[in-house]
Amino acid sequence: MTVSILLLLPLLAALALLFIKGDAVKTIALAFSLIELALGVYFITQFQTNISSPQFVFDAAWMPKLGIYFTAAIDGINIIPVILTVGLVPLIIGTTFKREYKNASAFYALIMFMQFGLMLVFTALDGFMFYVGWEAALIPIYFICGMWGGENRVKVTLKFFIYTFAGSLFMLLALIYLYLQTPEHSFDIYKFYALQLNPTQQAWVFAAFLLAFAIKMPIFPLHTWQPDTYTEAPAAGTMLLSGIMLKMGIYGALRWMIPIAPVGFYEWQNNPLWLAIAGILYASIIAFRVKDSKRLIAYSSIAHVGLIAAGLLAWTIQGLQGAMIQMLNHGLEVVGVFFVLDIIERQLKTRDVDQLGGIAKVAPQLSIAFLIIVLGSVGLPLTNGFIGEFLLLNGVYRYDMWMGIVAGLTIILGAVYMLRAYKNIMQGQTNALTATFTDITAGERLILGIICVLIIVIGVYPQPVLHLTESSVTQLMNDVNSKISAALLHKK
Amino acid sequence: MTTLIIIAILPIVLLYIGLYKANKLLLPVTIAGLLVALASAVMQWNNGASAIFSGMMLFDNFSVAFSAIAIVSTLLILMLSKDYFERISDNVAEYIAIMLFSLAGIVVMVSYYNLAMLFVGIEIMSVSLYILAGIDKKNFASNEAALKYFLMGAFSTGFLLFGITLIYGATHSFGLEAIRNWAVQHPRGIDPLFHTGIILIIVGLCFKVGAAPFHFWTPDVYEGSPTLVTAFMSTVVKTAGFAAFLRLFSVSFAPVAEFWMPTLMVITIITLFVGNLTALYQHGFKRMLAFSSISHAGYLLFAIVALSATSGNAVFMYATAYSIASIVAFGVLILVQQQLGSDSFECFNGLHKRNPFLAATLTIAMLSLAGIPLTAGFIGKFFMFSGAMSRFHLWLVIIAVINAIVSIFYYFRVIIAMYFRNAEHEALTVPGYYQFVLGFSALVTLIIGIYPAIIHNLTYNI
């Protein structure tokens, strides 16, 4: 069985959903995403962790005269994003069951189409296909945010679109440039890896990729689209954006940017690394002052992703493994947090932290779930956040002590603003508004339960997840390091 | 050659049908005739043609491909003409006939192998268009458009003709190959006749395709002409103009590329910026499309600036994508104009609730014009960018990328209006012909966008 079925199913689901009217569309969308999840689980059980080469390869001619092939596969580098995509989409669809969206069939069709785009990005081993997936994931989320978002949606989503589109066009130029450099004119990623570019060429390729990926993640100072978009988007859109889509940037850097331009990366590594770390501090400080709970999580997301980016760019094995597992953790937690906030907003019609308080008294189950998710995201030991942040900080520290120290502040700052948000929302006395709050229903309990259990299970026993990626990540790192040292030797 | 004969005879038949007032027959006969012409063109594919009539015409794959896309576009546009020309006057047969005469000129323009034939083709096409622009006799804007177009067109023809005569003076021939041979034999130095001739021809052709700074006629003519005529001008005519442009420069002037290339590069850059930046400030959809067509002329010029063996394919893919998407845009525009009485962006507000089909097709068209993947427009842009980069025009491509980003603002304005804003309008009625044309064009846009090999495998070396 090849990975093509994972790509095809969401696409067919999106088309099918367009023709379904009425309330059934939610259930059918959930059913499709669960089938996709089941297939994903099947692939994971068949996945061989001891080899680093691509598995379940699907290869078909797309534009063979131009060396463009439809090549998709799973290996240790993309297995985490693939798990994240197939796993989170059913959860995200589940969170929408209590919401009534106008034109629901289009809404769910767009979600499934977005899953198709994301799977395309994560499994592509062909540059052209990667770019197509990159944009194919952007179009549906643009419409989701624009059609079902908040009041300022038109302006905000256009800014988001222009930002990401601008970044990706420069990535397209880099891909075309690489394509023209390959002797047989091919978009195959392994041909790109094999290219012998000089340091100047590599630096430019690196810069073009970095622009696209830094906007997507986002890394300070290219983050300005993110808080507005997260705030204005409907809850499901925010979850798709923060839970899965921003991992496109991290994954892209790991799969495309660094291995293709290792020397360019090596020479410029410091700059994006400092920017990522500056972004952690900057976002954390802003998060202290934000009253809108959704916006607060948006800033905390910038901080968390900044740390993932820093761990990745530090290019140590700990940092890389930490980035891998933290992609998964962050996706889980952010979906959980946005779901809790959506439950509160749906009932109380407010996101303002100051107007909330005392919800724990009226809704103990919600409050426990929220506590577990918050603790996971601040990285308490025995939650999944701990192992991720520990590895990431370890990786950054090994690269540069001062960077490690500054990045380490994120643990303290994150704990302060997240726990304070928890305190303001959940604890204290109920007020007139929050007294009317009712606790979660069975369906919501199930979703939050799954998230909480995963947070604790991965926190206690992360080894299986780390094991999935280990051999591929080690292999990739050794390849890149040997290219860098060869270039350094050549210089001397 | 059969294609040309069919397309030349068809309008005469139509005029007779008009004479006998059998107006119901007009459209079916036109469609049937054009389909026969299309079939006869496609049968010429890969026939290994050589120049005929003492080297006047050459019906090779290049000419077949561009004739085919011109015929298909005309066919789609004429299908939209049902009940359109009737609103202007009873002389429907004449209108369709003139449009087909223009198409005959276009087939000559994409098949010429001699500068005399180029001139004849351009004149057949242009004179028909001068009339078409002014068919709405009682409309002030239409008259203005016709007059402006005629004056500017005649002026640019003068440049073109002057250029051709200078080239003749230098090379003693109108034949494309003879000119090429002369250029190869005189590789050094600037010949006052020859090189001035090239510049004058560039000026003349840039007028015709609406490239800046020779674009001043475009917005007013496009806006003033009846919308269906505008659709014809901005798709079929522009495609033919570029095919003619490319054939001349790739066959005859390629040996002296380093002479004209910088000039054309400057023109390309100006065209991109003028088209895109001005389109940003338009309040009407039709005028926005006029400026966007200028910017697309800029992208199409890429293929000539970065002249290579794949230029023909690049122009073909880009022009196909652009033509088909534009036909959708103009088709929806005609419906909105007719039924809401205006073409401002506000008229599109909330269209997706009332006419989901129209909104969906127009969205696909706009995404294609903006060059978003999975639509044909992206494939076109991809060929243009990779062609230019393969000739090391990196800065040109970066400028084009900046312009592509700018273009999002105005293409998405109509998408935003249709999907994200609300308004109380009556639902538009969409006639069956329109449904077919819009649905077909949107589908083709997606098919080329998703699986471009379907065309590219045939046209990669035209």
From TrEMBL, chain A:
Q: Name one GO molecular function term.
A: NADH dehydrogenase activity
Supply one GO CC term from the record: endomembrane system
Q: What is its EC number?
A: 1.6.5.-
Q: What is the protein's membrane topology class?
A: Multi-pass membrane protein
Q: Which GO BP terms apply?
A: ATP synthesis coupled electron transport; electron transport coupled proton transport
Short name of one Pfam family:
Proton_antipo_M
Q: Cite the InterPro entries for this sequence.
A: NADH_Q_OxRdtase_chainM/4, NADH_UbQ_OxRdtase, ND/Mrp_TM
Domain NADH:quinone oxidoreductase/Mrp antiporter transmembrane, residue spans: 126-410
Top-rank EC class of the record's enzyme: oxidoreductase
Q: Which residue ranges run through the membrane?
A: 68-93, 105-122, 128-148, 160-180, 203-222, 234-253, 273-290, 297-317, 323-341, 362-382, 402-422, 442-461
Keywords, alphabetical: Membrane, Oxidoreductase, Transmembrane, Transmembrane helix
Signal sequence residues: none
Q: Which family does it belong to?
A: Belongs to the complex I subunit 4 family.
Q: Which PANTHER family match?
A: NADH-UBIQUINONE OXIDOREDUCTASE CHAIN 4
This chain belongs to the protein called NADH-quinone oxidoreductase subunit M
Q: Which organism is it from?
A: Mucilaginibacter aquatilis
UniProtKB/TrEMBL annotation, chain B:
Q: Membrane-crossing residues?
A: 6-22, 29-46, 58-80, 92-110, 116-135, 147-168, 193-216, 228-253, 259-281, 288-309, 315-336, 357-380, 392-412, 433-454
Q: Which reaction does it catalyse?
A: a quinone + NADH + 5 H(+)(in) = a quinol + NAD(+) + 4 H(+)(out)
> Is Transmembrane helix included in the keywords of this UniProt record?
yes
Q: Which GO terms describe its molecular function?
A: NADH dehydrogenase (quinone) (non-electrogenic) activity; NADH dehydrogenase (ubiquinone) activity; quinone binding
One Pfam match, by short name?
Proton_antipo_M
Q: Which UniProt keywords apply?
A: Cell membrane, Membrane, NAD, Quinone, Translocase, Transmembrane, Transmembrane helix, Transport
- GO annotation terms (biological process): ATP synthesis coupled electron transport
By its UniProt entry, which InterPro entries does this protein fall under? NADH-Q_OxRdtase_suN/2 (IPR010096), ND/Mrp_TM (IPR001750)
Primary localization class, coarse:
membrane
Enzymatic class? translocase
- Give the multimer and partner information: NDH-1 is composed of 14 different subunits. Subunits NuoA, H, J, K, L, M, N constitute the membrane sector of the complex.
Q: Which HAMAP family match?
A: NDH1_NuoN_1 (MF_00445)
PANTHER family in the record = NADH DEHYDROGENASE (PTHR22773)
* UniProt protein name: NADH-quinone oxidoreductase subunit N
Report the source organism. Mucilaginibacter aquatilis
> What lineage, starting at the top, does this entry show?
Bacteria, Pseudomonadati, Bacteroidota, Sphingobacteriia, Sphingobacteriales
What gene does the UniProt entry assign to this protein? nuoN
